[in-house]
């Protein structure tokens, strides 16, 4: 049976991916306690996705890079980084003797082998997407050797779709899902852009060539 470990848990209504940098403002007493405990012990904590009115089974272990700012009332701004994906085996609304949640989690294996052809197709569609949205700078900032997780928050996915992506533990599977999403999204987006142009043109003097008949 895979090894498990006990993690302090900080459920949030977002999906955190491995390697993602996440800045958080900590203001609730229970999570102030969680951060201080982690800093003191050098331990990490987990962010499971709170979804459909409950704590999802999947989440990402994160490490605290640093406490950026401490406020007089004890609130904090912290910088964190996503590490590995876990699956909750047992969830405690309150970890033993603490104010915050905790749980026994199993770290899941992740296959990062990619399909280069799919990646090229994704890259081409991403360029079209960003150009259409007027976000060409995002494409320029894309690492040459990007992984699915690097672009996951820039695809227009909703939380449920991002959470489904988090549960796919093969890069090739993630690539297929992302490619399909872009193939479906782009035609709709381009049609919306055409519609905007038609709306803008309405009321302008039109220089039209009549048909010959």
Question: How would you describe this protein?
Answer:
The chain has 213 residues and is of the alpha+beta class. The protein has helices at residues 29-41, 116-132, 136-140, 148-151, 159-166, 171-201; strands at residues 4-9, 21-26, 45-51, 54-70, 76-92, 101-107. It folds into two domains: 4-107, Roll (Archaeosine Trna-guanine Transglycosylase, Chain: A, domain 4), CATH 2.30.130; 116-201, no CATH class. It has six helices and six strands; from the N terminus they run ββαββββααααα. Strands 1, 2, 3, 4, 5 and 6 form a six-stranded antiparallel sheet that branches. 21% of the residues are buried. Residues 6-184 form the Lon N-terminal domain. InterPro entries: Lon_prtase_N, Lon_prtase_N_sf, PUA-like_sf. This is Peptidase.
In short, what is this structure?
By secondary structure, the chain is of the alpha+beta class. The chain has 2 domains: 4-107, LON domain-like (Archaeosine Trna-guanine Transglycosylase, Chain: A, domain 4), CATH 2.30.130.40; 116-201, no CATH class.
Features of the shown structure:
Archaeosine Trna-guanine Transglycosylase, Chain: A, domain 4, 6 helices, 28% strand, alpha+beta, 2 domains, elongated, PUA-like_sf
What's the arrangement of secondary structure elements?
Elements lengths: L3 E6 L11 E6 L2 H13 L3 E7 L2 E17 L5 E17 L8 E7 L8 H17 L3 H5 L7 H4 L7 H8 L4 H31 L12
Antiparallel strand pairs: 1-6, 2-5, 3-4, 4-5, 5-6
Helix pairs in contact: 2-6
């Amino acid at each position: 049976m895979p090894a498990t470990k006990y993690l302090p848990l900080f459920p949030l209504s977002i999906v955190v991916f491995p390697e993602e940098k996440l800045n958080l403002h900590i203001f609730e007493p229970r999570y102030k306690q969680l951060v201080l405990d982690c800093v003191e012990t050098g331990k990490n904590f987990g962010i499971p996705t709170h979804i459909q009115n409950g704590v999802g089974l999947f989440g990402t272990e994160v490490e605290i890079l640093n406490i950026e700012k401490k406020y007089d009332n004890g609130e904090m701004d912290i910088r964190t980084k996503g590490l590995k994906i876990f699956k909750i085996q047992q969830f405690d609304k309150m970890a033993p003797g603490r104010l915050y949640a905790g749980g026994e989690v199993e770290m899941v294996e992740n296959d990062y082998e990619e399909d280069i052809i799919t990646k090229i197709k994704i890259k081409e569609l991403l360029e079209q997407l960003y150009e259409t949205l007027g976000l060409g700078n995002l494409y320029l900032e894309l690492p040459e050797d990007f992984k699915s997780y690097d672009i996951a928050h820039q695809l227009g996915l909703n939380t449920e779709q991002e959470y489904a992506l988090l549960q796919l533990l093969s890069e090739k599977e993630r690539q297929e899902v992302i490619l399909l999403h872009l193939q479906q999204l782009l035609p709709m987006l381009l049609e919306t852009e055409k519609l905007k142009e038609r709306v803008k043109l309405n009321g302008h003097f039109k220089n039209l060539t009549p048909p010959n008949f």
